[in-house]
Design brief:
alpha+beta; OB fold (Dihydrolipoamide Acetyltransferase, E2P); globular; six-stranded mixed beta sheet; 9 helices; 23% helix; 2 domains; five-stranded antiparallel beta sheet; Rossmann fold
Length: 388
C-alpha cells in the first residue's frame, strides 16, 4: 500500500506564520492527486512535508500506513521531480537516470535494465548518451521523470514540473505524464498553480487557499458543483461568472432579469435560503448569441432562459469558439440590491457575429445556475436534491 495520509497536519514557522493549517487528506494507492491553488496557498509546503524537506509542526503524516513525521527523506522511498529539472550537466542522460541507483549500490546490470525500461516509456532511447545541455526543455523534463521512475518508489512527488516549458511543450508533457502515471500506477502528488493542468491530469483535485483545502473532488465535480465562490472563480477558463442576485418568493432576480425558480433548483436549496440576497454563478457556456436562436424559442415561458442586451467590449477568438466580454449594471432597477457593474464573459459559438464596441442580444440558460451565500460565499446547493 502506497497511501499518503495527512491527519490534521499543520506547518507553523518560527514567526508564527501558518503555511498549512490542520489539513486532512488521503491520497489513495495508485491515485493521481493534484494540489492546486494560487501562490502562497501552502501546496508546495504540503508536498515538501511528504518528501521530508519540511518539518511538521502538528498532526501526523503517514505513508503506507506508517507515521513518517521524523523519518529522514532518504528513508521515505519517495521520488521527487522538480521544476528546475536538477540534472547533472556533466553526465549523460543514461548516467543522470541511473545515478541514484549507483549511490544505492545497485548492480550495474540492474541499473541498465531499469534505465532502458524508463527510457522506452519516455521515448528517450535515442538520447541516452547525450548531455542535458543538448536536449530541449521537454526532453530534460522527461529525463528528470526517468530518474524518478527507475527508483520504483512508493510515490512520485512533482513540484510544478511543467512551469518552465513553453505552451506547446506543456500540453505535450501533460499528456506524457498522464500516460506514464497510468502505465506505472504509482501514487502521485502533483503541485501546480495552473487549473488547466489540475483539471486535465488529476483523478482528484485538492484546491488550496490560505493553507486549507477549500474543496477536494473529481475535476468534473469541482467544475459542476463548486463548494464556494473561491473555487467557482478559480476553476474554469474563463472562470464562473459571479453576480449579485435576490430570491423573492418563487422567483430569482438577476442582472439579466427575473425568472421563476425551477423545481430542480428549489429542491437543491436549503429552506433557510428561500429568500434574500445571494450570489449567482453561471459558467460562460450558459450564454449564447440570441441571433443563433429562432425568435420564438429565445425566452419561451418555462424554458429557463432569459434574453437581454449588453454592450460587448471585447471578443476573443479561440478558433473553435468566441469569448465575448460584456458589462452589466447593478440590478437596482429590478428592486433588488445596489452593486457595482459586473464584468462577465460569454462563450458563444464561433459562427456568432458579436463584435466589440457594439451591443448584442444574448440568451442565458439558467439550467446550470449555482447559488452561494452572499456573506460567506459558501454554496447553498445541497449535495443531493431533496425529493418533492
Amino acid at each position: 500500500m502506497s497511501t499518503i495520509r495527512f491527519e490534521r497536519v499543520t506547518k507553523r514557522y518560527p514567526d508564527g506564520t501558518e503555511a498549512v493549517k490542520g489539513i486532512d487528506l488521503e491520497v489513495q494507492d495508485g491515485e493521481f492527486m493534484i494540489l492546486v491553488g494560487p501562490s502562497g496557498c501552502g501546496k508546495t509546503t504540503a508536498l515538501r512535508m511528504i518528501a521530508g524537506l519540511e518539518d511538521i509542526t502538528e498532526g501526523e503524516l503517514k505513508i503506507g500506513g506508517k507515521v513518517v513525521n521524523d523519518l529522514p527523506p532518504k528513508r521515505r522511498d519517495i521520488a521527487m521531480v522538480f521544476q528546475s529539472y536538477a540534472l547533472y550537466p556533466h553526465m549523460s542522460v543514461r548516467k543522470n537516470m541511473g545515478f541514484a541507483l549507483k549511490l544505492a549500490r545497485v548492480k550495474k546490470q540492474e541499473i541498465d535494465r531499469r534505465v532502458t525500461e524508463a527510457a522506452e516509456i519516455l521515448d528517450l532511447m535515442p538520447h541516452l548518451d547525450r548531455r542535458p545541455a543538448n536536449l530541449s526543455g521537454g526532453q530534460r523534463q522527461r529525463v528528470a521523470m526517468g530518474r524518478a521512475i527507475v527508483r520504483d518508489p512508493q510515490a512520485f512527488l512533482m513540484d510544478e514540473p511543467l512551469s518552465n516549458l513553453d505552451a506547446k511543450l506543456r500540453v505535450q508533457m501533460r499528456a506524457e505524464i498522464a500516460r506514464t502515471q497510468r502505465r506505472l500506477g504509482t501514487t502521485t502528488v502533483f503541485v501546480t498553480h495552473d487549473q488547466t493542468e489540475a483539471m486535465t491530469l488529476g483523478d482528484r483535485v485538492a484546491i488550496m487557499c490560505d493553507g486549507v483545502i477549500r474543496q477536494l473532488d473529481t475535476p468534473r465535480a469541482l467544475y459542476d458543483e463548486p463548494a464556494d465562490t473561491f473555487v467557482a472563480g478559480f476553476i474554469g477558463s474563463p472562470p464562473m461568472n459571479l453576480v449579485p442576485a435576490l430570491i423573492e418568493d418563487s422567483e430569482i432576480v438577476l442582472p439579466f432579469g427575473r425568472a421563476p425558480l425551477s423545481d430542480a433548483l428549489r429542491s437543491q436549496l436549503a429552506p433557510e435560503t428561500a429568500r434574500g440576497a445571494v450570489i449567482a454563478g453561471l459558467r460562460p457556456e450558459a450564454f449564447e448569441d440570441a441571433a443563433l436562436f429562432p425568435p420564438a424559442s429565445r425566452t419561451e415561458n418555462g424554458s429557463g432562459r432569459l434574453s437581454f442586451t449588453a454592450p460587448i467590449d471585447l471578443v476573443e477568438s479561440m478558433g473553435h469558439e468566441l469569448f465575448a466580454h460584456f458589462e452589466l449594471g447593478p440590478i437596482a432597477q429590478a428592486g433588488a440590491i445596489g452593486a457595482p457593474a459586473q464584468r462577465l464573459v460569454a462563450r458563444v459559438d464561433v459562427t456568432s457575429s458579436v463584435a466589440a464596441g457594439a451591443p448584442a442580444e444574448l440568451i442565458v440558460s439558467l439550467a446550470g445556475l449555482r447559488l452561494f451565500d452572499a456573506e460567506t460565499g459558501i454554496s447553498l446547493m445541497r449535495a443531493e436534491p431533496v425529493a418533492a
